[in-house]
Design brief:
Blueprint: H1 8-38, H2 47-77, H3 86-101, H4 107-110, H5 112-134, H6 140-147
């Protein structure tokens, strides 16, 4: 899921596939740990598996927010201008931005999808206030005709 240049949809699909594989390996490790404890042996560490689990957890947090954004974006783009509720859209983007801001700092280090999502959210954060101003009654007729 962290390969450069793939679409968010492909990354989400890969993340789900890797999560299933990780869960299978983690289940095997727990079984081995249980057996080791049963026989009084020291549990074998699996640092690579622990690191992979941590990275998958971080990516899950990121792509949950990304998935909500993709659903919003698709819905917003497929809605007619006359049916768009700009206030609701602005509130949704602000809520997504708040969720984005509480993501762990480790995601900023080397995940391209983090910066892609930030860029996409910023686009909406910059455009929606302008559209809200254009939607005011005082300037609606004059400016919306140009926008349409």
């Amino acid at each position: 899921p962290s390969v450069v240049g793939i679409t968010p949809y492909e990354a989400i699909k890969r993340l789900n596939d890797f999560q299933k594989q990780f869960d299978a390996y983690d289940s095997r490790r727990k079984t081995l740990d249980s057996i080791s404890i049963l026989f009084g042996l020291q549990c074998k560490p699996f640092p690579e598996l622990d690191k992979t689990g941590e990275e998958l957890g971080l990516l899950n947090q990121l792509y949950k927010v990304y998935q909500v954004f993709l659903n919003f974006d698709k819905s917003f783009r497929n809605t007619l201008w006359s049916d768009v509720d700009l206030t609701s859209a602005h509130d949704q983007i602000k809520a997504l931005w708040a969720q984005f801001l509480v993501l762990p700092e480790k995601l900023k280090e080397n995940w391209e999808a983090y910066f892609d999502l930030k860029k996409e959210l910023n686009k909406y954060l910059n455009v929606l206030p302008i559209l809200l101003l254009l939607n005011e009654k005082e300037i609606r007729n004059r400016h919306w005709m140009q926008v349409m």
